[in-house]
Every structure is written in C-alpha cells, then in structure tokens.
Amino acid sequence: MNTLEIKGDWNIIKGKLKQKWATLTDDDLQHIEGKQDELLGRIQKRTGESREAVEALLKELTAV
Predict the structure, then answer these.
(1) Calpha distance 50→55 (Å, rounded)
(2) How many C-alpha atoms does 38 have within 13 Å on its Cβ side?
(3) CA-CA distances (angstroms) from residue 51 to 4, 13, 43?
(4) In degrees, to the nearest 5, what angle opens at C-alpha 37 toward C-alphas 34 and 43?
(5) What is the pLDDT at residue 62?
(6) What is the pTM (predicted TM-score) of this model?
(7) Listed residue (47, 41, 51, 36) closest to 6, CA to CA
(8) If we measure between CA atoms, which residue out of 33, 42, 40, 29 comes closest to residue 7?
(9) SS3 64
(10) Of 2, 39, 45, 52, which is most buried with the most CB atoms under 10 A?
(11) Cα(22)–Cα(1) distance, rounded to whole angstroms?
(12) Axis-axis angle for helices 51-63, 10-20 (nearest 10)
C-alpha cells in the first residue's frame, strides 16, 4: 500500500473507514497527505485496533 493508492479513492475509503469505526472523525482522517504513519496511529488510537489490522483493512479497501 502506498500513498498514491490511498489518495486515488480517498473519499470512498474515508467513508468505509467511518462505517467500520464510527469513532473516527473527519479530523482523524484528514492526515493522509504525506502523513501515512500519523494517519495509521490516529486510527489505532481511536479504534484500539492493531497497526496490522488497520493496514490490512486499508489494503483491502484500496484493492477494490
């Protein structure tokens, strides 16, 4: 997964992340541009999921 893959469908991915983890806010998800590690950390902190779980879901969402 790379930043370009995520950027391409970001609005779709953002909506799916919010469906999966309703505790995420738009502020949490605005950190995509150049800050992939920070985005992953914010999602982990807000949801309590492991980094691997977050990365796996993002990879799954970008494969669609």
Answers:
(1) 9
(2) 9
(3) 19, 17, 9
(4) 115
(5) 73
(6) 0.63
(7) 36
(8) 33
(9) coil
(10) 39
(11) 23
(12) 130
DSSP string, 1-62: --HHHHHHTHHHHHHHHHHH-TT--HHHHTTTTT-HHHHHHHHHHHH---HHHHHHHHHHHH
Q: What is the pLDDT of residue 31?
A: 63
1 vs 24 pLDDT, higher one: 24
Provide the pLDDT for residue 8. Answer: 62
The number of residues making up the chain comes to 64
Q: Quick one: tokens of 43?
A: 């999602």
Q: What is the mean pLDDT of the chain?
A: 80
Q: Residue 14 is encoded by which pair of tokens?
A: 């953002």
What's the rounded mean pLDDT across residues 28-53? 83
